[in-house]
Design brief:
mainly alpha, Arc Repressor Mutant, subunit A, three-stranded antiparallel beta sheet, 3 strands
C-alpha cells in the first residue's frame, strides 16, 4: 500500500471539516442559542483566559471589526462581559460570565453527545482509526481547551 500524499490528505481534511461543522451548526440552531460556531469558539477561548479584543481577533483569525461584532452579540446575550484591566485602565478585557460558562458547558456536552450518537454505528476498529487520526491532526491544529478530550487516556463512549 502506498503512502498517502500530503495534498490528498489535506483535501480530505478540507472536505471533512465543513461536514462536521454543519452538524455543529445544526445542533446550535436546535438548542435555540442563536450562536454560530465562530461565537462558540470565542466562548471556548474566553473560558481559558480573559483576552482583549485584539488578542481574541488574532486567536480567531478574524479582523477587529468582525470580532467586535461577535463580542457585542455575546455581551448582549449576557455570556461575555467587558472589564477594565487592573494593570492598565485604558485596556478593556473580555471574560465569560457565569451564565456564559454554563451555556458553553451545556452546548459542548450536547454537541459531543450528538456526535457520539452519529459515531455509534462504527466498529471499535473504525473508532480507533478515527481517534488516532484526530490525535495526529491535533498536533498540527491544537484544539481549544473545552473541545479537548474529557477522559485523557480513553475514548469517550
Amino acid at each position: 500500500m502506498s503512502e498517502p500524499k500530503t495534498n490528498l490528505v489535506a483535501e480530505d481534511v478540507i472536505r471533512t471539516i465543513p461536514a462536521v461543522m454543519r452538524v455543529v451548526t445544526t445542533e446550535l440552531r436546535q438548542q435555540d442559542t442563536q450562536l454560530v460556531p465562530a461565537q462558540l469558539a470565542v466562548l471556548a477561548a474566553l473560558s481559558q483566559q480573559s483576552c482583549n479584543l485584539s488578542e481574541l481577533a488574532e486567536l480567531s483569525g478574524v479582523s477587529l471589526p468582525t470580532m467586535s461584532g461577535t463580542v457585542s452579540r455575546l455581551v448582549a446575550q449576557g455570556w461575555v462581559q467587558r472589564t477594565r484591566a487592573s494593570h492598565d485602565r485604558r485596556m478593556v478585557m473580555l471574560e465569560l460570565t457565569a451564565d456564559g460558562r454554563t451555556q458553553l458547558t451545556q452546548l459542548v456536552q450536547h454537541i459531543v453527545a450528538h456526535i457520539s450518537d452519529l459515531l455509534s454505528p462504527l466498529s471499535p476498529v473504525e473508532l480507533a482509526a478515527i481517534q488516532k487520526g484526530l490525535v495526529t491532526l491535533q498536533k498540527v491544529f491544537p484544539p481549544l481547551e473545552p473541545f479537548q478530550r474529557t477522559n485523557e487516556g480513553t475514548a469517550n463512549q
